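SAMPLE LOG
Freezer: B-3
Tube label: C17
Construct: single chain, 216 aa
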Amino acid sequence: MLVAAPPRGIVSDMLEPDAPIVRADVHIVDVHPAIRRSLELPLDLNLAQLHEVLQATFGWTDSHLHQFDIGGLTYGAPEFDSDGWSDRRIFEASDVRLADFSYRHNAPIRISYEYDFGDSWIHGLELTAGPRQAGVKYPRCIDGHRAGPPEDVGGPSGYADFLQAWRDTLNDQHTDMRRWVGRKFDPEHFDLDANNKAIARAIRRSKGSYRFRNET
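STRUCTURE (predicted):
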């Protein structure tokens, strides 16, 4: 749960070099076998930066809208709701840091992250506090399973249909699907080193907020 206004002393103590980090176990909902990542995140990371980490670790291209759902409140980039498409107020994601959550022993904090409201890729996140390791740069991915789905494949059900065609040489769409996604795509492949390089690039480019705000 969120702490509405944590006292400055508590937050600053948490952000000392030997402060704990946050372990985030993330999976894409309704995809089987599971596509998951285990991330370690610094407490001073805000939700806009977390968006950039999630985009990088799952191989998304940030081509669609997104939002975090936390305790019934929506966080994201309010400027994308200038036309009032959402019936819920969108709070600024960069105003909330992981340090603003109240972590309790053996009680993970569960939040959700949705990317691409058409395909509706919902990511379930479980956040727990953990020990920091000396000499380690955060954020980082420590484990993962399977590649992220291609963009615009049609959500979980569309991805299941895509994989069926991609794997079955007798399927009428097999050649088209292979050509569309490219020869390098392997749904079962996960490269931890490449994943961490992508996360590091995303954090550098985000400069403490959303990357798109720094590129316009």
